[in-house]
Write a structure and sequence with these properties.
The protein is an alpha+beta fold. Among the domains are: about 55 residues, RNA polymerase II/Efflux pump adaptor protein, barrel-sandwich hybrid domain (OB fold (Dihydrolipoamide Acetyltransferase, E2P)); about 70 residues, Helix hairpin bin (Helix Hairpins, Orthogonal Bundle), CATH 1.10.287.470. The protein is about 35% helix and about 35% strand. The protein contains four helices and twelve strands; from the N terminus they run H-E-E-E-E-H-H-H-E-E-E-E-E-E-E-E. Helix 2 runs antiparallel to helix 4. The longest helix has about 35 residues. The radius of gyration is 34 Å and the shape is elongated. The chain starts with a helix and ends in a 14-residue tail after the last strand.
Length: about 290
C-alpha cells in the first residue's frame, strides 16, 4: 500500500513539473532570448604628415571630445613653409597688379596699331602669366596651411583613449598610429539568431539588453533599451564562443542590436543578454541615431 502511495506521489510530482515547464515555455514563447557581446567602433589616430612628436596630451583611459588636441609634432618647418608661401602670395600679387596696370594703359594702343601686334601679345601674356602665378601662390599657401594644421591630431569624435602607441620624441610617418580611440557611439551587441527564429524578427524591433553587472542602486542587472539595427543576409555556423557544443554546428544569422542610452558602464567585449519581444511591431523612435 505504501509503495502505491509513493508511486502515486512520484507521478503527481512528474506531472506537476511537466506542467510547470510547459507553462513556462508558453509564457516565454513570445520572447526571444539571445546572448552576445558589446562592440564599439575604434579609430587609430595618426598625423597626416611626418615629424617628431613634441607632446602627447592624453593617457590611456582619458575621455576626449570632438576637436580636442591630443598630440602635436615639431611644426617649425611647416610653419616656415607657410610663412614663405604668404610672402610669395604678396610678391605675385604685386607683379600681377603691375601687369594689369600696364595692360590697362597700353591695350587701347593696339586698336589703332600705335604699337606692334607683338607688343600687344606680350602685354596680354604677361598679364595672364602673372595672374596664373598669383593663383598658384594662393594654392601653395593653402597647401602649406594644411600641412601646418596636420602637425596636430584632433579627436574626431567623443570617446575614450584605449591605447597610447607612441611617446614624445618618437619620429613618426604620416598615417602611423599614435593613439587608439574607442568611440562612445554607436554601441551595439553582436549576437546570432537561429534560423528557426529568423522570420520572427525585423529591422527596428525593440530589444532589452541586460549585462551581468548588478546596479548597486537597484540591486538588479543593468538594463538598456536597444533595437535591431542589422540582420545579416548570409547564414553562418554558430561561433564556438557563443553557444554550447551541441549547438555549434547550427546555422545562425548575425544581427546587431544597437543601444540607445549609452553610459560609461558599457565596455568593449562585455557579455550581454538580449531579449526581444516577438510581438513588438513598433519601430524604435531613436533609430535615426548615427550608426
Amino acid at each position: 500500500m505504501k509503495k502505491k502511495i509513493i508511486v502515486l506521489l512520484v507521478l503527481v510530482l512528474i506531472i506537476t513539473a511537466t506542467w510547470l515547464v510547459v507553462k513556462k515555455e508558453q509564457k516565454n514563447s513570445d520572447e526571444l532570448t539571445l546572448f552576445g557581446n558589446i562592440e564599439i567602433r575604434q579609430v587609430d589616430l595618426s598625423f597626416q604628415v611626418n615629424g617628431k612628436i613634441i607632446e602627447m596630451f592624453k593617457e590611456e583611459g582619458d575621455s576626449v571630445k570632438p576637436g580636442d588636441i591630443v598630440a602635436i609634432i615639431d611644426d617649425r618647418d611647416y610653419k616656415a613653409n607657410y610663412e614663405k608661401s604668404i610672402a610669395e602670395v604678396s610678391r605675385t600679387l604685386a607683379v600681377s597688379e603691375n601687369a594689369q596696370s600696364i595692360f590697362s594703359r597700353q591695350i587701347p594702343l593696339c586698336s589703332d596699331n600705335t604699337i606692334s601686334q607683338q607688343e600687344c601679345d606680350n602685354i596680354t601674356n604677361q598679364r595672364n602669366e602673372s595672374q596664373a602665378a598669383y593663383e598658384t601662390a594662393l594654392a601653395s599657401r593653402d597647401y602649406a596651411k594644411n600641412q601646418l594644421d596636420y602637425s596636430k591630431i584632433y579627436a574626431p569624435a567623443e570617446g575614450i583613449i584605449t591605447t597610447r602607441v607612441q611617446e614624445p620624441g618618437a619620429v613618426v610617418n604620416s598615417g602611423q598610429a599614435v593613439y587608439t580611440l574607442s568611440k562612445s557611439r554607436p554601441v551595439w551587441i553582436r549576437t546570432y539568431v537561429p534560423e528557426t527564429n529568423l522570420g520572427n524578427i525585423k529591422y527596428g524591433m525593440k530589444a532589452t539588453v541586460l549585462t551581468d553587472s548588478i546596479d548597486p542602486k537597484t540591486g538588479k542587472r543593468r538594463e538598456y533599451v536597444g533595437w535591431v539595427g542589422y540582420i545579416s543576409p548570409v547564414a553562418e555556423f554558430t561561433p564556438k564562443t557563443v553557444q554550447t557544443e551541441d549547438l555549434r554546428t547550427d546555422l545562425v544569422y548575425r544581427i546587431r542590436v544597437y543601444v540607445y542610452e549609452v553610459d560609461e558602464f558599457l565596455r568593449q567585449g562585455m557579455p550581454t543578454t538580449v531579449k526581444i519581444n516577438l510581438h513588438e511591431q513598433e519601430i524604435n523612435e531613436h533609430m535615426d541615431i548615427q550608426q
